[in-house]
Each structure stands twice: as C-alpha cells, then as structure tokens.
Amino acid sequence: MRKEKREKQLRSEELNSILQVRSTPFSMLQDIRITFQMIMGAALADVGGLVISARKGEFEAGFEAQGQTREHAQLAKSLGVQKLVIVVNKMDDCKWSRARFQEIQEKLTPFLNATGYPDEDLIWVPIAGLTGANIVDPLDGKTCNWYKGPTFMEILDKVELEPRYPSGPLRLPVLDKMKDKDLIVHGKVENGTIRLGDKLAMMPYGSLA
Known about the structure:
Blueprint: H1 3-14, E1 17-21, E2 24-28, H2 35-44, E3 47-53, H3 58-63, H4 68-78, E4 83-89, H5 98-115, E5 122-126, H6 152-158, E6 174-179, E7 183-187, E8 201-202, E9 207-208
Parallel strand pairs: 3-4, 4-5
Antiparallel strand pairs: 1-2, 6-7, 8-9
C-alpha cells in the first residue's frame, strides 16, 4: 500500500467515531492535525466546537493574525457548519474568572459575527478539560458562582439545526475519494435520504453508482 493511500485510510478511520449524548448520537470528526483534515471534518459537520484556551497568552496567540483560531472559524463557516459552540477551556487556570471569560467573548464575538455567525448561532460554554468541570456534570457554586448555563454535553444534546428535508431529492456533494478494493467517496448529505442499494447518478456526467 502506498504511503499516501495508507495515510488517507488511517485518516478515514480516525475521523469516524461515535459519541452518544443522551438522546442524540454524534459523529466525532476529531483528528485535525493538518489543515486538509480540518477541512474534511468541517465539511461533514453541522455543529463545530471552537476550543479556546483561557490561559493568559494562549488565547491571544491563537487569535492573532496568523493564529489558527481565525483560520478554523473562517473555514467552518465557508464549509457549511451551521452553529459554533465556543468552548473556553482551562478556566481552572484563571480560577474561573468571569472577567477573563467576558474578555474572550468581547474580543472574539465581533470577528465571528464578521465571519458570518450571528449571535444566535454562537453558544458559549466554560469548561476545565483537565478536571472535567462543566463537561458532563454542572458546576457547583464553590467552583464557579456566575455560570448558570448548561454543560457542554447538554448543549450538544439540545442544539437545534436547520431542517434537511429527508423526503426531498438527494443531494450529496462529494468532498474526497480514495481507491481501495472499490472507489470510496466521502460526502455530506445536504438533502434527501440515501439507503443501502440505491442507484445514484454521479454528476455532471450522470454515471450510475
């Protein structure tokens, strides 16, 4: 197996894992070590998690002109990610400072609005990944007495998305392909429903697949 083929197959396996959040199953598109993989994952996603570090200097480094925070937000919008959950991580590093959380909001929100995300499509949540605070279980008053919103998992479980009209004509843009035993294509169903055994027309030539 050639190196690039092997790497692409590995990437395909890494991107395909499932998270069950109470009533809602999620496909986790997780390995974004290089920009191409981030593009592939974002193109398949409906909801994006933009993880921001609350640690002093780390948010600033990611948000500067060459930082990845800007690049990832712009790519997410251009590739059709409907909503962004802004996960402000490492809140324990700043002792759950409300001022630090608001500072990040005030600096990042105008940029995200200009990118094309209105306030109603932005969901903010503070967490501490190292301790697991506010990921599954809600914060207690001793840890943080100002955040009264939902946990990260509760947000994922309740997020509302635009309808896709499963009874309509099938539209599945092809995002990538790989040659294994057969030709395998990657895409995102934007409209309609696909079932095992369906005969599909590959456009623009109309070839059956």
